[in-house]
Amino acid sequence: MRRPLLVGNWKMHTTILEAYLLVSEIGKCAAGLDDRDVLLAPPQIALHEVARVLQNSDVSIASQNVCWKGEGAFTGEISPTMVKAAGGVAAIIGHSERRQIFHEDNEMINKRVLGALKYDLMPILCIGETLEERESDKTFSVLEDQIRQGLAGVTAENMEKTVVAYEPVWAIGTGKTATKEQAQEVHAFIRKLLAEMYEKDIAESVRILYGGSVKPDNVDELMAQTDIDGALVGGAALKADSFCRIINFI
Ligand code: PEP
Predict the structure, then answer these.
(1) Protein residues with CB under 6 Å of any ligand 1 atom
(2) How far is CA 182 from the centre of its chain?
């Protein structure tokens, strides 16, 4: 009942030309996948070009971050209206690289989530614990704070349009994947928390993605878990053959 969602995050990789070449390949292998959604998040500068190539395809476009304002004096930011005008439908928000390298806190991430919703972009709220937090048994409290604060002010109606991505920081770009049991345990926790914050029906309808070294050889077992509704993919989304295998998970 929850439609699977596979998201490729290209991070700060690909020039416009490289993005064009990569998306041309991915567009072909995503054709006809009508039981799942596929999103690509190219670098902001290539967003329009990638959206142009994907016009009339089965793949949609996400921005890698988004400002809370429609326009204004926010040097270096991209606004939700700009993302939409370029062909985007969603925005990744609160990625661990934004949190750790650029010091975005839960308060700012919450503003971005509310901004995306205001302008009708689907927010993909990323949450995740560091290795140190996991080893000191703080995983669930860290995730609860990230969810409660990141979703502050999000109405029940808007929650149905929001996606949560669980990305343990220790698994991103490291080649270490959470085991399917570890991932399922956290996803079930997130869904239970959403049921407390909203209603059971809403919690049951929210898509919760797993991210952290998802690869062709582990995607099937991760996707087979009850509460894993999709994947947020970094490194393996930069090669057409591996991303094609991932979006064609069984
Ligand atoms: C990510 O960028 O969100 C990510 C999960 O990266 P990777 O798949 O490379 O671990």
Answers:
(1) 9, 11, 167, 172-173, 211-214, 232-236
(2) 19
